[in-house]
Every structure is written in structure tokens, then in C-alpha cells.
Amino acid sequence: MSSSLPTSPSRRDFLFRSGGGLGGVALASLLSGSPAFDARAKRVVQIFLSGAASQCDTFDYKPLLIKKAGEKFDPGEKVELFQSNPGVVMPSPWTWKPHGQCGKWVSSLLREMGSCVDDMAFVHSLISKSNIHGPATFLQTTGFILPGFPSAGAWISYALGTMNKNLPDFVVLPDPRGVPPNGPANWGAGFLPASHQGTSIRVGTLEPIQDLEAPKQSFITKESDRDGLALLKALNEQHRVERTGDSRLDARIASYEMAARLQLSAPEVLALDGETDATRKLYGLDDANTADMGRRCLTARRLLERGVRFVQIWSGADNGFPRRNWDSHENLAKDHGALGHSIDRPIAALLKDLKSRGLLQDTIVHWATEFGRMPCSQGSKGRDHNPFGFTTWLAGGGIRGGVSYGATDDWSYKAVDKPAHGYDIHATMLHLLGVDHTRLSFRHNGIDRRLTDVHGHVLREILA
Amino acid sequence: MVRSELAALAALCALPPLAAAAGVSYQRDVRPLIAQRCQTCHQGDSPAASINLAEFPGLARIAHSGKLIAAITGDPTTGSPPRMPKGLTPLASADVDLLRRWIAEGARNDAAGTEANRWWSLRPLRKPAGPNSIDAFIAAKWKESGLKGSAEADKRTLIRRVHFDLTGLAPTPPDLQKFTTYEKLVDELLQSPRYGERWARHWLDVAHYGDSHGYDKDKPRQNAWPYRDWVIGALNQDLPYAEFVQQQVAGDVLYPGDPQAFTATGFLAAGPWDFVGHQELKEGTVDKNLTRVLDRDDVVTQVMSAFTSTTAHCARCHDHKFDPIPQADYYRLQAAFAGIDRADRPFDDDPVTHVRRQTLLVDRRRAQRRVQPLLDKVEFASSPEIVELDIRLQDASLLLAHLGTPKTPAEQAEKERLTKRREDDRARRTQLVDALVGPEITSAIAERQAETKAVDAKLAAMPAPRFVYGPAAYFPRVGNFRPSLQPRPIALLARGDVKSPGYDVEPGALSMLGLPFDADGAAEDGARRTALARWIASPDNMLTWRSIVNRVWHYHFGAGLVDTPNDFGRLGSQPSHPELLDWLALWFRDEARGSLKALHKLILTSAVYKQSSGDRADAAKIDAPNRYLWRMNRARLEAEVVRDTVLQTAGKLDVTMGGPAVRMFFFKDDHSPVYDYARFDPSSPGANRRSIYRFTVRSVVDPFMDRLDCPDPSVLTPKRNTTLTAIQALALMNNPFIVRMSEAFAQRVQGPDAVRKAVQLAFQREPSAEEFKQLSAYAAQHGLANLARLLFNTNEFLFAD
Fold first, then answer.
1. Nearest CA of chain A to the CA of B286: how many Å?
2. pTM to 2 decimals?
3. Which of A93, B190, B264, B417 could hold B247 in an S-S bridge, CB 3.0 to 4.6 Å?
């Protein structure tokens, strides 16, 4: 289907989008002939815990770790780890208790999120193909362990097109401490047209969207801009008179009008001062520890309610020292502790707020990370990477709340029941958006590429 | 009426020849059909109903059993629809008939192929009878389709077009004044050093060249640039294409006394590299093997895409679904690169010194080869107590790293305690290992290390070398990144899975071409790469010669004769002018002897290139996509051309050539380095150099360039996208670079007649009376800098007719 798109339009591989443009085309051909595909959701917010958030300190409760604390870790096979030799069994430094009607055990690290478990569907049996941050992060963001592939948000923008012409389809809210492993390549468009790439918004900074406004203290004024745009349009229209039949020239003229609309709509969506005190408090804007993530979660809600298709929120930057992401090799209690505290309330607030506004029913919320952490210690206080079994959860549009899919062994070491991959999460996400993951493709370098490569199964057991 | 029928006929003729009298071919007819209709489910690790149709045996089995036809035809007695493809439209009756005939003919695999059913790109090059010039071939297609060409473009348009095309810059007022004839201009521009800079950028797209490694901890690649300079130089010197190819694959081996040819091999290391996978993962682990397989995969993909427009990489997990490339061929190509890793390689500008150092490095590799097995005994010696110590040692290292610089006396004490503990543990570990391996090994190591030290001493006595990032068979070990010392064995991986190795393969290339490959499993790295270089550059390799002339055509016209420049296989496009493509390939190989400059001149002086780009309703009705080139294509300038032309127009372009890449961002080296474009100091040296000299970071691309569709340097880019978005418009209006250059441009033209001068510089023409009036009024009210910024944003500035 869409593979014919890059080669068929009238002039070269000219691709642009104005209005429903390309997105609309892709959507129409994806959905045709498959009336069974009812879209249950319209938009996605993905919260990415960069550096690998531990499953056995958050949602994957294993009493055996408490029982065998300090004993030799022996799951009955050779354990090949990223950096280290396996240490002793290390129970979580946090306590556990059941939450919600479903009785899901959640650690005290994420107690606020514990109050949302009846809306969440947990997948405990994820496996990663790589135990290295870069490739494994790509696997979850783009579906491949190599660089150069489009991010899930770019695919969704490509497939579904826009719901609000005045805002980008795919917005990224990076951690202010820095970019995650692979950097912005995690939200790139790969070989898809650049118009589908994630637009990074640095919430709370002086210039949240790059180049949205002319630099301050320059020769540019409101008046020079207004008159300049009018004259630019006149010049471009004169230029076009002798150059009929080239829609690129029209598209460029239109792009300045869209730019002007973006200039008006972006500051409005980013201004949080209109939110009530109750809302600000809900998101933890009143607490220095939670204010940053809170602002970004609240901004995400504002973007989603204005029709942005895909919002990606990052918790954690690169893997450097001092630790500024979830890669707690050295001191899990300290590093996971601080990060967990900073995100627990804001994420719970986002779920509750979306729900109370009726947005959760057609918004998918996705907790993502590149792999899990080992149930045994690395050194004395840390945990090494665990690509063999880790946890993600989904909530919202079309998701059945309060269920758990798949399981790791008694150690939280290895997925043993219904092993699943990131492909399955992507397939499920696309399915809920009304898109068949096997048909959403784009031909690049001789292959019809998909977000799910040649894999992916919709996880029907977690669907409502 | 007649005309549109003719067009339809012409379109039909462009389609692949269908099964005719020759019978049904598995490779040509059946395989693509099955791949498209059945393989979505019936392939891979767990194919639906355990029927794998991606491989011939699986298909043959169900074809012979009658199950295939039964599944796709439904039941005529009950009228029930076909069971397969499940949930999709049934196969067309013509397709069902085709499969029936194939089964009736014995359901055979004609993998070897015959001349008649060979895909167009795999047929030998043949000189067509009749036409003998580009324009004659083009005119023949016009005639067939009922088209006529367009008039020649006016002088200003042609000068602008050819300047952008060959140099990536606009013509300057002196350029316009000294113009005599078009042909002379083409000659002059081909002699300009700006030509190599412009066309090197095209080749670097194809090579997915970057100045950092990519992935996690995206480290700067300090020594990639000598390869970039080699490409610029090779193009400016018009290195014959066969040389251009061979030097990039094996220049170090083929021309041992030529430091330039040595830097050419930077091509093989141009792509991304997984720093953590190579440097941090332990030898012998599954993930380490995966890292290496994927690293070679990147090289194989790049080499075969760039030189032969072939998608060999599609055969990593199974036989190629559409082209006759067995999986084993793919792994043979991996074996051609089994002796190398990507690393900084020392070289010398003085040829004598160069040869001496390279000879010593071969000795060094041999010496290391003798000692390494013994060192491995020590490195991998293990006992429960050693494992215990390793855990403690790592614990200390982790805690020390986490501690950082102590801020309190308690932290200082902790640091000292851990440091001491680590020292004691290390000493204890050495004792344990020594006891385990025994004194014989220890003394044998000492003995053989005397050899490596002797060579090291000779190397140390040499003058300091330069470095190029390239394919290295030997390099000093860093962490867990160490040379193979001899080519690693390459096994065919079932389903591409590193955990399912099959038999070992020998080095080789694509068997479908039937060309010799002169190296076997016993060959060292150099011999393997040399064999591949010769295989690619062979005069008989029809893919190589078709590929390059098509690429050159693509960059001149904005579309190739084959519109998929990296894929001449069945999933690629068909050539619009197959005879012209072959004629050009032969002309380029035999008459021009691989001179790219001669090829440019031939194309640029053709009438088809010189046509106006104006629209004509009559022609557009027949051929709207302009496949038959009844007019010239209008070009949206690429990111680099926009940036360079803005600099040039503002009078700020710095044309210094070559040397280390210019960091047009704030850089802070760290565990994960920081690249920040917003904190760049635009007054720093080199800030106004041509874009080809930019330091291209893979993980954090330059947002301004990115918005103008500058490709991700990790993506092989045979042709660029063109998007026209609001975000792009904002970058062209507000990016600090544009704002700064608008001020410079204003300064350049200020004084009497500023508006006229500005228009001349930006558009290479006089303003019309109306434009002059409008622009003057705007400049009078808002200043010249605003006027300059406006001109940079016009369609006229950003497109070449």
C-alpha cells in the first residue's frame, strides 16, 4: 500500500503534508477492506523510563526474593550479564502491598501509581533482543536495534495524519537533564518524510520550541514580520504565475500560513497558568521533586486534548555520572528512589486527569523502558541489566484495566509465561488505533519496512 | 484518444514481461506472487500453520500435494470463498492460473535463471542498435508516447541550474559577466574545486557517512574526515570509476605505497558503530556476537547498495524473497569483511614511511596472533574464588564511580577504604590466576611478549602518524574491543539468529552474476577485500556500471532512469529508458573510461538537460510525472545548498578546503558527550565554511539542516525527501543562522541601490518595476536586514528552475 506513495506522486519523491494530505491517503488505504478494525483510541502518550527501570522494584512482585535475600542467585542456568557476574539475591529496598480492586501488588516506590492499577494492563513477560541501552532503546522506540528507523510516533503520524493542523502530530518532552541514549534519533522519522519526526518541546525553558519566534533583540519586530509575510506571499505568488503545475510552490506558500498558526497555538498550549490550583497540585507542581515531571505530564495532557497524536515523555537522560537516569548499576535504592519519587505522582495525576476529562477512553498511556534489571545484586547495592524479562503497562483507550499478561519465573529473572516483545506492544497499540501493523509499511532500500519488522502479535488478552 | 492509447501501450511495455511461451518461472513469476500474497503470515520462526512459504521446499511440498490450489480457490460446489489469503482479497484468477500452470509444469525452481527470464538489471550490458546519443534515446521515447520536448531554458536559468548542479552554489555577478558559452561554463565548473565538494556530498549520503559513532554514548569520531577529503579529491581529480570503487574497498591492499588510497577505505567504516557493544561487552557472549554480525551487516548493506544497487541485505534471515540471492551469498559477503573492525588506523603522508609503518603493523599483528591464545588463558581463567573476587572488584569500581569526587570527610574515608580494598583484591586475584595457569604459560607469555614489544619499540621510534577511521585488521585493544587477528569464521545463521549458527561459509559475492571471486576461506583479510573490490569493479559486472550512471543521472535530473537508485531488483523501479541506461553504462565504461567528469559533460550538454522546466498542459496530460523528460525538473535546493548559498549571498562564505570537521555546536566530552547547537558560538573559526565540512553527529542532528531534509547520517540515502512544513518555514525565518546572515547580507548591499543589488545577488536578475517598488517600500520601513531575510525565504531563492 503505502510503499507506492514515495514513488507515485507527481514530481520526484516529493512528499509534503498540508491538511489531511499524505496522512489521509495512508489511512484510507490502510483501513480499506478491513472493516473489522475499529479504532478504540485516537492518541498515545508514551512515558519512557530511560536507562532501564527495574521490574522487580516496581510491579513484578516476587516473594522469593525476600525469602532468599542474600543467598546465591541460582536460577538453574548460566546467567550472561551485561557487565558483571551475578551477585546474591537482592530483595527490593521497598515494601509491597496489593492495590485496587484487582489486588495488584505494587512496591512503595510507586504508591501513587498503585491507586491506578485498575486502569492498567501489565505485561510482565517482555524480552529484549539486546542488553545494551542504545540498541535496546531503539528496539522499543523504533522496532529495530539499528539506527535509522522511524519512531513509533512517526509511524503513527504517517498512518493517521493530523487532528490539529496548528500543532505537530508527534511531540517529545525530553528530560531537562539531557537526551537519552541515541539522542533525538529515538524520535526521528528515519526514512519517512521529516514532517513525521517528533518535535521536541523543552517545557519550562525560554525557547520551548526551536525557532518558533525570532531571536529577541534582533532587527525583527512584529510589524516587520507581519508586513514581511504579506510581501513574501505576494512575491511567491508572482513567482508561481509562470510556474504552474508545481504543487510544491503552493505548499511552501501554505507552510508560512501554517507556521503563523503554530506561533499562535503553541504558547497557548504551553501556558500552564490557566490550570486550577487543584490540578497543579494533583500533578505535583507544588513540590520541587515532582514539579518538572509534573509540568511535562500536564503539558502532555494539554497537547493530547488539542489533538496531538503522539506525546513521548522521557524520564531520564544518558547513562553518565552522576546518575541522571534509571541505569542503577551502583546504588539502586538511592537512584531508583529519587527518580521514582519524581515521577510517581505526576504519572498517576496524568492518568486520573485524563480519566476525569473523558480523554482516557480514547488515549493510550504506555509505560516503556528498554529492559529490566536483575533480581540479583551487582556489586553490593546495584542491579545489572535484565533483557530476559521485564514489565511494561498500558492504560486507556481499548485497554482492559487490572489485568496482568505473561509472567517471569519466581525470581523475576526470565519471562516464562507468554513471552512477549516490544513488537507485540507496537502491534497492539496500532491495533487500538485502527491500524493493521502488517499493512502499515514503507518501502526503503528494497524492503517494505514496518514498525513491527516481520514480527508482532496483538495482545488480545489485554484488550477491553 | 489515439494518443492516450499510445501512452497506455507505452506504460504496458514498461512492465516486466509476463510468462510467455517460455513457461512459468519460479524466480520470476511465482516467488514474488507468493511473497506478496502469502508470506506475511507464512514465514519466519513460527509461520502460520507451520507452513513456511518463504523457502522453496515448503512451497513445493504444498504445491505438489494440491493443498496450495485448494486453499486459494475455494469450493466451487458450495460456492464458499477461498480460505486463503486469510481475511484478504482472494488471488486474481490470472494469478491462480499462473500457479496452476507452474504446478502442471512440475513446480520447479529455476534459480539459476536463463537469459530469457533474467531480470533486466542482471542481463549483460548490450549496445542498443540505432540511437547514438542521449537526445536520440530521449526523442525515441517522446515519439512513442506522443510527446514533444520543451524549448531550451533562458540563459539565466541555465547558468543558475548548472551552477547549483555542479557546485552547489549560486552564480555570482562576475560569473554572469564572464559567461561566454554554455559549454565553456560547464568545463569551468567541472574544473572548480567546488565541484568535488558538491558531488562528494551525494556520495557521502550513499555511504551514510558521519563524524560520530551513533547509538548510546555517541562518541565523536575524530578521524573520519580524511575519507571525506579523499572523496572530494578523487572527484576533483576525476579518478576513473573502477579506481574509485576499488580504492574504497581495498585501496590499502591494492596500492600499498599510496597513503591516499589508504584513506579511501574509510568508506567501509563510514556508517554507525556500536561503541558499547564492541568496547564493553565481554568476548564470547551472545550479545557480543550479535554486535559483530550487525556491524558487518551494515558494511555489506552499504557496499552492495552503493556500488551494485542490490539489496543483498534482504537475505540475512532467509533467501532473498524477490531476487535470486541465496542466504549463503549474504553470509559470503559478511565473510569478505570477517577480518576487519572499524578503528582509527595510522598512516603517513610520506610513502616510504607509510610502507614501513604498515609493514611493521603486519608484523605486530602476527606477533599478537602468537601471544593472544596464551593471554586468553589468563584472561578467562576462573574459579569460584576468582568469581567472588570479581564481584567484589566490580562492587568497588561501581561504588567509586558513583561516589565521584568526595565532598565530605566521610566520603573521603569511604573512597580510601574502597581503593585500598580494590588494590588488595587485585593483588589477590593475580596470585590466584598465576597459580591456576601455571608458570609455563606465564613464562611463555613473557617470551612471546618480547616479540610484540620489539615491534612496538620500532613503531614508537617512528614519526607521529596521521589517522583515518577505517577497516582495521589490527589495532591496540581498548576495553573489550580487540582485533580478530585473523578473519573470524562466519556461519550462515538460520533465520538470521546468532543463536542458530549453521555451516561456515567462505568469502564470496553474489552468485547470480557468475563472476569470479578470487579468495577462499584460507585467505587473509586483504585478499578477501581485494577479491570483492575486483568483483565489483569488473567490466563484466553489469550492476556496477548501470548503478553509477543511473546515480549521476538522478542527481542531474532529480530522478534516475531507474527511480530506485539503491535497488535494481524486482522490488525496485523499472528503467524508464532501458536502452539509454545500457548505452550510457557502456559509453561511460568504454569511451569515457570511467571519467565522471566526461559523463557530467555528456549529460549537461544534452538538449534534454537544457530544456525549460515550464509546465505544458498537453504533455502533462500524457506524462504528469515527467518520466519521459519532456521538460526539466525544477529542483528544491538541498539543505547544504541552502546553507552554503545563504552564506555566499551574505558575502560570508569561507571556502577553505579540507581538514578536521568543523563543530558547529557546543561540545562537552563526557561519559555520554553533549552536542548542543543552541550554545554554538557563530563567531568561532570555521563557522562559515561549506556544509560538507560540518561535523555530522548521528544522535543529535543539526536542527536547521534537519528541517531542510538533510538526512539522518545513519540512514543510507540514495535520494532525499523533500518536505515543506511549517517547522521548516519557521527555521528559515527565525533560526539564528538566517537572522545573522540577513544582517550580513544587509551590510553587504547597503548604500545606494541596495535593493537592486540584493535582488541581483539573491536571484541573479534585475527586479521588476513592481518588485522594486514593493521591496524598496519594505526596506524603507523595516530596514535592509528584514529585506534580506525576506529574500532568503522566497521560493525563487530556494528553487532552481
1. 8
2. 0.85
3. B264
